[in-house]
Amino acid sequence: xxxxxxxxxxxxxxxxxxxxxxxxxxxxxxxxxxxxxxxxxxxxxxxxxxxxxxxxxxxxxxxxxxxxxxxxxxxxxxxxxxxxxxxxxxxxxxxxxxxxxxxxxxxxxxxxxxxxxxxxxxxxxxxxxxxxxxxxxxxxxxxxxxxxxxxxxxxxxxxxxxxxxxxxxxxxxxxxxxxxxxxxxxxxxxxxxxxxxxxxxxxxxxxxxxxxxx
Amino acid sequence: xxxxxxxxxxxxxxxxxxxxxxxxxxxxxxxxxxxxxxxxxxxxxxxxxxxxxxxxxxxxxxxxxxxxxxxxxxxxxxxxxxxxxxxxxxxxxxxxxxx
Lengths: 214, 99
Description:
By secondary structure, chain A is mainly α.
């Protein structure tokens, strides 16, 4: 290494250091399309709940003029199945776009950073999931939507330490939305669609414009 | 004028050693396989450089177990962090003088 090109080498060295620090501490392959895809799944799910499952339930009510217990139990299970389906579809489509992006960036999808991101996101999510499951077992339906939003928001805020920091703002929005939902407790489905649908899509588009457009 | 090269640390001349330090200053503890994956190097090559860094007192090694498999993790020491920061400061000075 001659003294002549030392400054050029140092510049390269600093770039290497920065790249290594970033690549080793944050998972940066999250794709904006993942957000958009997850949001679309959520909106589709909310639409099915609103215009098919609930509609049928109230149509039955109108026919008979009263609710029957089996209809309500049926409604519960159909909603739970729908929610599970939406979650699976959202997860898979989000996974696909991030996998694609990681591949083009030459990163592996299951590495030190993605593992850390996964676990740190899973902790609040699993706690929230079990908490909601517990509420349902006491037939407490009122707080399901706000609890979903708040726990998901907390998971995102926690995850932001291990991936693109922008996701923290999405987390804040979800938490605030969940808390506002407490004031209009019967409108859970709309808040749910707003938080998991619209906000994911907006976030995904913003991320795409910021990091992936070129 | 002070020679800008004096601040540079010989130990960090090597890319792999510099890479290991860059990773360890931002992560509390990283195990051998993760380092290997991030730096894209072979076992033997990485091991040699880790021994060198350890002998210089820049990193500390912790041998543990995950089940029955050994899990060796590495962390930066106080003096390692100091040496790394000084090295970066020297690089910055050099780049500033270039402009």
